[in-house]
Sequence to fold (622 residues):
Amino acid sequence: MVPPFRLYCSFLLFTRFVLQSNSLSSTIKVASPKLPSKNLSSEDVIQSIKQAEIACRKRHDNRAMLALFVPVPEHPDPLPCEESSGTETSPVSLYGSKCMPIPPKDFPPGSYLRLGPGGYSKDEGFLDGDGMVQCITIPPECSQPSDILFSSSYVDTAGRQKERQMRTTGDYRPKYIGSLGSAPRGWPLASAMIQNMVTFRTSQAQKDTCNTALAEHGGRVLALMEQSPPTEIEVTKSGKIRTKECMTRLDGAIPSAPLTGGNLGAHGKYDYKTGQQIHVSYDPSLKPFVRVDVFEELMPNSKRRGWQLSQTVGVDIPTPVMMHDFALTTKYLVLLDFPLTVRPRRLLFDKFPVEYEPENGARIGLVPRTAHDGLIDTSKEIKWYGCQAGVVLHTTNAYETDDGEKVVLHAFRATPSAGGSYIQRNSPACLYEWVIDLKSGTVSECCLNPNTLVEFPIINDRIQGQDLSFSYGLRYFGIGGPLNAVISAPQDGISFDGVVKFSMKDDESLNINKGDVVDEFILPENWYATTEACIIPKMSSSNTNMASGNWREDSYVTLIATHVPQDERSFLDIGSDLRSMKSHFLIIDADNMAEGPVAAVELPVSVRYGLHSMYLDWDKLV
Fold:
């Protein structure tokens, strides 16, 4: 039985978090106010997006989607990959002799890492699951499939460790209660957080799942979830994932916060020119609501390489928002103050704290950087530029024009059809462009391709901040649900059937417009992309081949795809069968995607839906 005094104290701490409003303490001035929301002006664009969404909803296969959401156990001990089964559904069989069972010779050795939630129950949200890393390790001189090793391991977070420590003999198995499965309601979420504090005798009401994205700096790898401190992991050359430090504060770089313990933004950017890793974090309980952290690989008196904090800057915004991603140019950090607002007080009225609130307006902020060292220039103001309301989860790229008079931003943008909780129902996203005129202070914006619904944008990170020729994204196949047989949230899921390649330039000689799909890789029927793709430069390539004005990428596109058999079994029977739902690691030539994969590595264990990926070079493995 829970002691009444402990329950009362937990309730007081939670209530203080919901109601508190700390004093303003930003170190940068706000130069212009937020502008009111505007309506989209192009009815044909709106209709094109609607028609594309209708098509996706018509071809949605709910049985396949449910099977892909069935969680699978971890396999921490590396397993050798296998020769292709040779069935008619195998990519090696489908694409013939041009598709090899091992990577091509100019594919760099290393580990492909995919992070995503695992171990969630049907009463929880997908994003409540503990972070699980799938690892595909390709050694130098790889000559056969068995040289490639596969493992999948949970990130051993502080929350998982607490759960183990609280276990006793018998059937008592305490577990953190997820916070996202209650959407769109708020009271169950508040109750879950209070129960977590009571059960585990801690002020950390939310579990540090570390299930969203991975980042590497100076050879150190972090598993991230933006509402908790990260966990540091390492990858061995034998293909094993090991947790080094949970709830790491990176030598004091991450400040403490109520209920979550602190946080670091899930999507950082690495500047290849300066060697800096930059993260933007948000906290709805503490002003200023946004924090920018700049990390160096080495600092004076550093005891280790990587994640050495050199600068922290607070940024004032009027209302806390979910700032999941940002963009980086040579001169600026590009922040998105868009109306996916985070208001903890909504919990008091049984509403989910994260809602789309278009009346809050939207604007883009340019945070100035210094020319000589890439740090934030605190002597200059942040300039804000009003734009149309919408939601951007992930940016593609941003750059300054050659004359220095404009900043161009590209991202995948969605416009939810109604207010309320954004978590339960999908709003389709498209490639979008904003052009900020620095002299006039105006923003021109447009949807570059309303007919192609996409998520998870990718580019070659080594040339981010430049005027690129191409960008990529996962293409929607189906949209639909319900998914409550497996998870509580979302109830409207997305399936992806391939990777599209967008032109980011106009070329009259080739009859190509910016935003056109100039190449694509579409998976065979009943195959689904279960992870974000990666761009991996060929070992023979140079960055100049991929920069502005060049029409060759000299890179590979990689992703994991899983086949869902079409038979009479239920989704649960299929999803629980780790052998019949075959998964392959696919390697596609970015300059010839339509020809299919140049290599398909059959994995020994099926891989289900996850989130973000990264490729770790061989010299970063231990």
